[in-house]
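Lab meeting notes turned into a lecture example. A postdoc, R.K., suggested we walk through two folding results consecutively so the class can see how the record format repeats. The first protein's sequence and structure tokens come next.
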Amino acid sequence: MALKGINAYKKGNLKQDVSQADPHKLTLMLMQGALDKLAYAKGCIERKDYAGKSEHISRATAILMNLRETLDLESGAEVAENLYALYDYMVQRLIDANVQNSLKIVDEVITLFLPIKAAWSQIPESAKQDAYEMQRQKRQATI
């Protein structure tokens, strides 16, 4: 019973964090969520909880697909294209991990994903503000 209360509290805090987050923070939260799901999937594989493994890999895959689809391939040029290809590769590898119940493949995806998250968290505030301003100007130009 106490666990349900803790989970409800966590969900309430998450909703509040999401409602107050800027796009950069939301992306970091998604990235952390994917890494958390992959860690849970590893635990499920170790315990031979294949239903749990599938659920967690599926959720991590959905996050990666969302991150991939939100890339601005027009403005981001080569970096965005490379990230798109890398996210696509990670999605394919997670499909393999799910089918093969492979800790090694899940670890490979985590190893590929950690530097992306680390780099994202290192973006300076001034660069974030410049990007937000550029987005506002794009929207204004289309109105």
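The second example is placed directly after the first for contrast:
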Amino acid sequence: MGEFIMPPGQKPSARLYPISIFGKPKEIDIDNYFVKITGLIKNEKVISLKEIFNMNKESVQFDIHCVDGWSYLGPVFSGVYPKVLFEDVSILPSGKFVMVKTLDGYSTDLPLDFLLSNDAFLAYEMDGKPLDIANGYPLRLVVNGKYAYKDAKWVVEFEVMEEDIPGYWEKKGYSRSANVYENDRFEK
């Protein structure tokens, strides 16, 4: 196992800060919580939270890197890979990107092939405990090697798109690739 290299411009943090643009939801009705797959697919798919909780639970260790310069190292997330949700979805050939949408109206864009890789994970637990609401309960996307504005909290929809349309922070000039190891914080 190689030595860990801290991404440029980052410093370790002792905790995961619960940052959100619009504030955390006041309450979440888990009985009526669904994730939709929409856009450039043959048939829209709706998956209940209960169905996601009943899927084969996986665990991954992804560090969280905030664009503000702190990194929370070592958390182990449990949940499912988004690619599992897409297994029986017929994506149209023009589908190349995805907009991740959340309960509070936040959005972020990702290449579809990245979302369907082992570097994207839909978590409902962190370090063996359910996520708290401030950190994305019931479902938080965590991505490996990208800044945390790509880690959408309270995920409710994956919209497959042909073009890379910017999400909330990307519209404000933040990098679409968000590669932490290339210090890619803002569009050039």
